[in-house]
Design brief:
Number of helices: 6
Order of helices and strands: HEEEEEEEEHHHHHEE
CATH topology of the largest domain: Helicase, Ruva Protein, domain 3
Radius of gyration: 20 Å
Mean pLDDT: 89
CATH architecture of the largest domain: Orthogonal Bundle
Oligomer: single chain
Low-confidence stretches: 211-219, 224-229
Structural class: alpha+beta
Strand order of the largest sheet: 1-6-7-5
Number of domains: 2
């Protein structure tokens, strides 16, 4: 699933082609939102919020969430699409550009004033990539009593605590900080949680640069320079391979209550079994 840095790259790629331009045509997969309502309106914002892409107009807003398969493409008028039109869930046309969202399971249109009441957007924690990211608020949310007995791996994925971390960053951050993913939040001190927050933000920021004109989920790097060792990640999807710190074979297990995800860890650097 694309993580916060991917959505910021998507927004940065679309923004120069949409911002300030009037929508000349708009359509969405049926059944779907009545995006024809944005025809004639000017795009006032193209922003990422956590794992959401928000295209804003005067009075209206479109939200997409890419989940596992979604992607955004930008084409010139008349340019052939690289995917079947049948896979397009949203098409926005402005002078000089056509923005197409393929395969995304979530496309919504709502009044802008309702954003703070939105069931997903209204509950998001601080966005790790926001210029004014509030680390103290993120720590406060991680310390919520309802998360005290939740594993730190699950807590980092909870977008209501802090927004932007997905399964890749969850695993990589915990390995870098040498923390057992299955440790309960209540068993970690504020200094440790603060390090996790700071490391997650550092990695996300480092991966927000442009990658591709196709603006889809690209493999991130968490080890500084993916070209140096030919492996951009420390632990994610490296089950059975030697830990790049101590050479112990990496382990993995499905983990989580609400939405089980695969967790990868080094039993020597980070601790034992779930």
């Amino acid at each position: 699933m694309p993580e916060g840095d991917t959505l910021h790259r998507v927004a940065a790629g679309l923004r120069p082609h949409l911002l300030g331009r009037q929508v000349t045509a708009a359509r969405a997969r049926v059944p779907g939102p009545q995006v024809s309502r944005v025809i004639g309106r000017t795009v006032t914002g193209v922003d990422a919020l956590g794992k959401n892409l928000l295209i804003r107009f005067d009075g209206l807003e479109i939200r997409t969430h890419l989940r596992l398969r979604g992607s955004w493409h930008r084409y010139r008028p008349g340019e052939p699409w690289r995917r079947s039109p049948a896979r397009a869930v949203l098409v926005l046309e402005v002078p000089g550009s056509v923005a197409v969202c393929f395969d995304a399971p979530v496309v919504e249109l709502f009044e802008r004033h309702a954003e703070r009441l939105h069931p997903s957007l209204g509950r998001l924690g601080p966005d790790l990539l926001a210029p004014a990211f509030d680390a103290d608020e993120a720590l406060r949310r991680l310390r919520d009593p309802g998360r005290a007995h939740v594993s730190i791996a699950e807590a980092l994925l909870d977008q209501r605590a802090l927004a932007g971390i997905g399964n890749v960053y969850k695993n990589e951050v915990l390995w870098i900080e040498q923390l057992l993913p299955f440790a309960k939040v209540a068993d970690l001190d504020d200094e440790t949680l603060g390090r996790l927050i700071a490391t997650a933000r550092r990695l996300l920021v480092a991966n927000t640069g442009p990658r591709t004109a196709r603006m889809r989920a690209e493999r991130i790097t968490t080890d500084g320079d993916p070209r140096a060792a030919g492996e951009p990640l420390w632990v994610y999807r490296r089950t059975g391979r030697p830990c790049r710190r101590c050479r112990t074979p990496i382990r993995s297990a499905r983990h989580g209550t609400d939405l089980p995800r695969t967790t990868y860890w080094c039993p020597t650097c980070q601790g034992g079994s779930p």
